[in-house]
Amino acid sequence: MEDEQLDIVDEHDNVIEQGSRNDIYQKRLPNNQSIRVINILVFNHQGQLLLPQRSANRKLFPNRYDFSCGEHVQIGESYDQAARRGLREELGIDGLPIYVGKLTPKEVSSFMQVYILVHDGPFRYDREGIQQLRWVNKQELQEILHHPEQCKNDLPIVYQWYLQQPGCLLR
């Protein structure tokens, strides 16, 4: 897998330099610098959320629950472009997700735009990187979130934030 090239941004989300994903994660950015990511919450028509569980062989967050789709925003790419690319690469979907909102490094680990998409599948996904995809309802998700050690770091924060958004689709 090729090392992604990412924009490094200041506290106002302005690009200040670039670097490889591996270098950025190894050197750890100072508090006034960050990267950009997108996360997409995919729902089916019954209001259930698509929740992947990462494989045990993953370098970061093995065996943990993750966002339906997540991507780093690459150099010169917009958040929306990264979201469309992520859907194609991670789930095999050509679609345009709906923007919900933006979180900052004061709330989560980086600048993050959150999107939703309603899609019942089928999905094409990396079976080496993801051990399972499952649909969960609001109660099942709340039970999972009560065990943050089972989730990728920002997952509980983002889902609690999303549940407060007008028009939340999770039932």
Order of helices and strands: EEHEEEHEEEHH
Helix proportion of residues, in percent?
10-25%
Q: Radius of gyration, Cα only, in angstroms? A: 15 Å
Secondary-structure class: alpha+beta
| CATH-defined superfamily | Nucleoside Triphosphate Pyrophosphohydrolase
How far is it from the N-terminal to the C-terminal residue, by CA? 37 Å
- Kindly report the spatial arrangement of strands forming the biggest sheet: 5-3-7-6
What does this structure look like?
By secondary structure, the chain is an alpha+beta fold. It has a single domain (5-163), classed as Nucleoside Triphosphate Pyrophosphohydrolase, CATH 3.90.79. Helix content is 22%, strand content 29%. It contains 4 helices and 8 strands. It has helices spanning 21-27, 79-91, 138-145, 155-163; strands at residues 5-9, 15-20, 36-43, 49-54, 69-72, 98-103, 111-118, 130-136. The strands form 3 sheets. A 4-stranded mixed β-sheet has the order 5-3-7-6, covered by helices on one side. A two-stranded antiparallel sheet has the order 1-2. Strands 4-8 form a two-stranded antiparallel ribbon. The chain is globular, with a radius of gyration of 15 Å.
